[in-house]
């Protein structure tokens, strides 16, 4: 009997069972019904297997057959009459498990049933399921990272850029549905591995360390309310297979790029040891230009300044994650892990500036060089305790986490005149900057889950995040008369910033017929404290920076954050989802620190200590439909945000300096829609694509100027993968982001194209990959800005030129497993949208 027939018969018999046997529940004892129940999970990943088939065959009468299928939690419950049965548990591409000659004269709980991938199906799975897969849950979409050839030898940021709904911009900033305020979690918690909120740090972590990415656009109440766009939860690999196993990944490329990563695991019946360690060396040249034309009303000395910027980045970093899970008994365990990252960066930024005057043309050429050396030490200690009171989901988990990040920077800035035909008095002052940043964060968390029955459960929990960041910034400027470097009291400062967030949450989930819902409420208090230690008074600081500055603030924000998530099953392969949640966007430390950047004389970024948190209410309506070879998903969403952050530009009065500063505007309305299609026309070819359209409407003013604007944009992805003879795969990924209108101008669209080839070697124990990212060298941010006093064209490219990488991964004591779960809600879905 084939798997399909077993599944169909099991489903039919489960329906017949309800009607034929329910009437005998109160009958004579020999016709009384008993319940056979259990939970079916993947043996390696320990995730539920939905739609696993349960067949129950009467030993005395094999024609007496009943059964059913598991639900989204992998659970089943089937009623039978008294007798002796063979119980068969099956799932496509997995080895079946049989419980023979079980005498049923009372309820039988089979507990947790673990299924492993079937060896007889392994060859087919190896060929077919080598791309990112997706699993749809009530409050999230889970993308199990497969063999994405274009990210071999790449970073976590590269992998995230191939996840539907997610974009990684030219600067490495991560957006979800076009919204930059996305919360990044590692293994469900804030982490030093995510750089304490600085997503650029993900450029230093290898992509092959990821097991799966959870895209949570409508987070439930158990999650931190931070992130108006939603949450990206990155789950790192942790093998579950008994014995010693792992993989070694080597890669090299150009521009200079080399790395090695080891994933190792050793498991016994009593404990599991795991580690992911790696070293990466890379040179990432970047750059761009600023072309600023000042209007006559600007009262500036120059009419135009053209600044060409070149950046050379030489980065060397090492990271390791070492942990052990100890199984106290069959139902409880404690896991401890230590993460450490060390980085050395040497960046050289060169700004060549041309100065023009009205009616005179080019009058001055200068070159400003910034040499920055940086050392970064981050480490994190985590403890997790879990106690499963039974096999029905009744459990308690507790977490403790401590993180520390120490960063030191030494920056030397010099400037020279290349041409000065009219003898303009232009002072050339050298600078030296010493910066130290120390960040500490504590996390305390407890979660309790109590099922009421098979379809309903209650959850409650507490989370406390306590974070402190101290930035000590010391500037030495050259004395124009003596040529000596002297302490600059105007810009030297020490900024002590604390963010404490404490929350209690509760939620209830249940299923009624075809409708499943999860209702939650989170009470969260945010405490933001900051103290600026400067030689200047508050009034002097306001005069220097042009905004009122409170050098010692302590603000509390208490709020309720409700969530509602619904799924209605129209059919077995068709459903509708609806989500609502309220979120918060807290300003990070660098958004608040008012002391400006100094990489450029003419273009600076300055924080705003007056920023308040922004709040949003978001709605999401989705639809999913699967056919044999096609999967279609759509969704529409709306978000209303108050006190929304917006980075605006202005001209500092009486100078040529252009300043970017974040401010609170009154509101921001976001409306959008997504469409995803996956099409597998043949075993050797799979095609998929996604399209995301969104519209922002911003209203608000700053310093008496109206910054209301409407912005419409879109982005699209397309991916194809072809399986060629001789175990060679060819993959193409294309991404296009459309042009958009901004608050003060517009931004051009851009196209990005990645190609990759791979071949399996040594009886599938190794895979050799060659990929090129940004084949067209077109990932550039090009924009136009206009204000009352100037207009400007800008271009920036974080990594210039094509990036070629050769990668070799070798696996030992493990199969090359990827699961193709056609009936389990998982699809081969590189780029499509669920």
From TrEMBL:
Residue ranges of every copy of the Outer membrane protein beta-barrel domain listed in the record: 388-810
A Pfam family that the UniProt record links to this protein: Plug
Domain of life: Bacteria
TonB-dependent receptor plug domain segment(s): 153-231
Keywords, ordered alphabetically: Cell outer membrane, Membrane, Receptor, Signal, Transmembrane, Transmembrane beta strand, Transport
Record-linked InterPro entries: Beta-barrel_TonB_sf, CarboxyPept-like_regulatory, OMP_b-brl_3, Plug_dom, Plug_dom_sf, TonB-dep_rcpt-like
Membrane topology qualifier: Multi-pass membrane protein
Places the protein is found: Cell outer membrane
Cited PANTHER family: HEMOGLOBIN AND HEMOGLOBIN-HAPTOGLOBIN-BINDING PROTEIN 1-RELATED, TONB-DEPENDENT OUTER MEMBRANE RECEPTOR
Family statement drawn from the similarity comment of this UniProt entry: Belongs to the TonB-dependent receptor family.
Protein name per its UniProtKB record: TonB-dependent receptor
Organism expressing this protein natively: Gramella jeungdoensis
């Amino acid at each position: 009997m084939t798997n399909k027939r077993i599944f169909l018969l099991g489903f039919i018999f489960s329906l017949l069972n309800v009607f034929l046997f329910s009437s005998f529940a109160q009958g004579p004892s020999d016709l009384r019904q008993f319940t056979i129940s259990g939970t079916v999970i993947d043996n390696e990943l320990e995730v539920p297997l939905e739609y696993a088939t349960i067949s129950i065959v009467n030993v005395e009468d094999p024609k007496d057959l009943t059964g059913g299928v598991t639900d989204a939690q992998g659970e089943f419950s089937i009623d039978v009459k008294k007798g002796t049965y063979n119980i068969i548990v099956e799932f496509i591409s997995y080895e079946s498990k049989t419980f023979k000659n079980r005498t049923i004269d009372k309820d039988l709980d089979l507990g947790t049933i673990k299924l492993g991938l079937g060896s007889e199906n392994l060859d087919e799975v190896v060929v077919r399921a080598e791309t990112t897969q997706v699993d749809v849950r009530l409050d999230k979409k889970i993308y199990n990272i497969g063999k994405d050839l274009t990210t071999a030898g790449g970073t976590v940021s590269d992998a995230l850029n191939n996840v539907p709904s997610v974009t990684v911009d030219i600067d490495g900033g991560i957006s979800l549905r076009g919204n930059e305020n996305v919360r990044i979690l590692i293994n469900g918690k804030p982490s030093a591995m995510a750089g304490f909120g600085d997503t650029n740090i993900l450029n230093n972590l290898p992509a092959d360390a990821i097991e799966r990415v959870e895209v949570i656009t409508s987070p439930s109440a158990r999650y931190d309310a931070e992130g108006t766009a939603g949450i990206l939860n990155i789950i790192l690999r942790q093998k579950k297979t008994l014995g010693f196993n792992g993989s070694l990944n080597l890669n090299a490329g150009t521009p200079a790029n080399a790395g090695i990563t080891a994933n190792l695991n050793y498991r016994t019946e009593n404990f599991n040891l795991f580690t992911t360690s790696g070293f990466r060396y890379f040179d990432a040249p970047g750059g761009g230009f600023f072309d600023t034309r000042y209007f006559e009303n600007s009262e500036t000395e120059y009419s135009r300044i053209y600044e060409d910027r070149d950046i050379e980045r030489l980065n060397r970093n090492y990271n390791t994650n070492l942990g052990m899970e100890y199984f106290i008994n069959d139902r409880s365990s404690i896991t401890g892990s230590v993460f450490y990252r060390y980085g050395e960066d040497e960046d050289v930024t060169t700004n060549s500036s041309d100065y023009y005057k009205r009616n005179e043309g080019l009058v001055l050429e200068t070159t400003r060089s910034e040499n920055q050396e940086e050392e970064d030490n981050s480490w994190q200690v985590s403890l997790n305790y879990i106690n499963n009171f039974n096999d029905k989901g009744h459990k308690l988990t507790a977490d403790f986490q401590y993180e520390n990040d120490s960063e030191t920077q030494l920056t030397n800035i010099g400037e020279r005149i290349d041409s000065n035909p009219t003898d303009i008095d232009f002072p050339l002052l050298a600078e030296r900057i010493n910066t130290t940043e120390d960040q500490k964060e504590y996390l305390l968390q407890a979660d309790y889950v109590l099922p009421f029955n098979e379809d309903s459960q209650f959850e409650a929990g507490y989370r406390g995040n306590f974070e402190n960041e101290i930035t000590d910034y010391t500037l030495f400027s050259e004395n124009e008369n003596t040529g000596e470097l002297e302490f600059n009291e105007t810009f030297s400062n020490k900024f002590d910033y604390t963010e404490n967030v404490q929350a209690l949450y509760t939620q209830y989930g249940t299923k009624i017929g075809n409708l499943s819902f999860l209702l939650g409420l989170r009470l969260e208090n945010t405490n933001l404290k900051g103290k600026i230690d400067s030689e200047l008074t508050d009034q002097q600081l306001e005069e220097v920076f042009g905004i009122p500055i409170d050098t010692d603030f302590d603000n509390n924000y208490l709020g309720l954050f409700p969530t509602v998530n619904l799924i209605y099953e129209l059919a077995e392969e068709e459903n509708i989802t609806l989500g609502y949640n309220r979120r918060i966007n807290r300003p990070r430390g660098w958004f608040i620190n008012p002391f400006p950047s100094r990489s450029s004389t003419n273009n600076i970024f300055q924080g705003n200590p007056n920023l308040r948190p922004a709040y949003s209410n978001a709605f999401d309506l989705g639809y999913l439909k699967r056919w044999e070879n096609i999967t279609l998903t759509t969704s529409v969403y709306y978000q209303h945000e108050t006190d929304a952050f917006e980075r605006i530009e202005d001209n500092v009065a009486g100078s040529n300096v252009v300043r970017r500063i974040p401010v609170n505007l009154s509101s921001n309305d976001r409306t959008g829609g997504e469409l995803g299609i996956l099409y597998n026309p043949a075993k050797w070819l799979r095609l998929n694509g996604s399209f995301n359209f969104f519209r922002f409407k911003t209203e608000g003013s700053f310093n008496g100027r109206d910054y209301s604007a409407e912005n419409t944009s879109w982005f699209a992805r397309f991916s194809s993968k072809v399986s060629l003879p001789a175990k060679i795969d060819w993959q193409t990924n294309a991404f296009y982001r459309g042009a958009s209108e901004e608050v003060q101008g517009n931004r051009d669209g851009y196209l990005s194209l990645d190609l990759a080839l791979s071949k399996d070697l040594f009886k599938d124990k190794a895979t050799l990959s060659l990929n090129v990212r940004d084949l067209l060298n077109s990932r550039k941010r090009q924009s136009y800005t206009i204000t009352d006093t100037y207009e400007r064209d800008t271009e920036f490219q974080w990594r210039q030129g094509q990036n070629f990488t050769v990668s070799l991964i070798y696996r030992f004591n493990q199969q090359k497993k990827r699961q193709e779960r056609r009936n389990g809600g998982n699809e081969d879905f590189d780029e499509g949208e669920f």
